[in-house]
Amino acid sequence: MSSARAMIVPVTPLQQNCTLLWCEATARAVVIDPGGDLERVHAAIAQAGVTVDRIWLTHGHIDHAGGAEALREALKVPVEGPHRTDEFLLRSLVEQGLKWGMPEARNVTPDRWLDEGDSVSVGKVSFDILHCPGHSPGSVVFVNRPQNFALVGDVLFQGSIGRSDLPGGDPATLLQSIKTKLLPLSDDMAFICGHGPTSTIGHERATNPYLR
To answer: Is the pLDDT of residue 1 over 70?
Structure first.
């Protein structure tokens, strides 16, 4: 079984966890949620000594997607995700950038939208797609079951859950997504979230005050 490694690269004033993930067997890589500060992303790619094949987006907010178009042009690779219901956010990244003080942000249209049940791969490592709306309508989660590892964007955090007061967000929908899509995963499923430290599903099931 091929294994994956990951490097977290905090980007933007919101300290979003952009993730460089690669297949150890092939040294092929993907950048997840390049929100900005692309010089840091390029430095991480060089440090890891990998070749990036894809860009994946968990959702369409500025701190996760604002740098995707520029990185796509620089690396000449496709963008995959999120779910199509976040299209309105990806078309307003320039507007979001002006609001949040990130004027370098550019609108982006993915090469591939992702749906529940789809899969994506990097090298020999594959991830299943879960559509988890609530933080945004098109939020998706990437799950690698053989390694018990996931990338959850801003759906779930250590000790907290995503905001639901932004355009397209809904608190009841977010909790439903977490309870029906994420909590059924194994307790030892580790995850990288969009901000802050990593955690496991079991730890959040037992301690997260929003889920108890």
So the answer is: no
Cis amide bond preceding 82, omega within 30: yes
Per residue in 49-60, pLDDT (tens digit) is: 999 999 999 999
Q: Which amino acid would we find at residue 208?
A: N
| DSSP 8-class letter at 42 | H
Return the CA Rg of the chain.
16
3-state secondary structure of 109: coil
3.60.15.10, 3.40.50.300, 3.40.920.10, 3.40.47.10: which CATH number matches 4-207?
A: 3.60.15.10
- Give the per-residue pLDDT at 48: 98
Tokens 């990130």 belong to 102
Distance CA 36, CA 106 (A): 10
**pTM value?**
0.97
Residue 13, CA distances (Å) to 19, 37, 155, 204 in order: 16, 9, 20, 26
pLDDT digits (tens, 9 = 90+) for 60-116: 999 999 999 999 999 999 999 999 999 999 999 999 999 889 999 999 999 999 999
SS3 155: coil
- Taking the alpha carbons at both ends of the chain, their separation in whole angstroms is 35
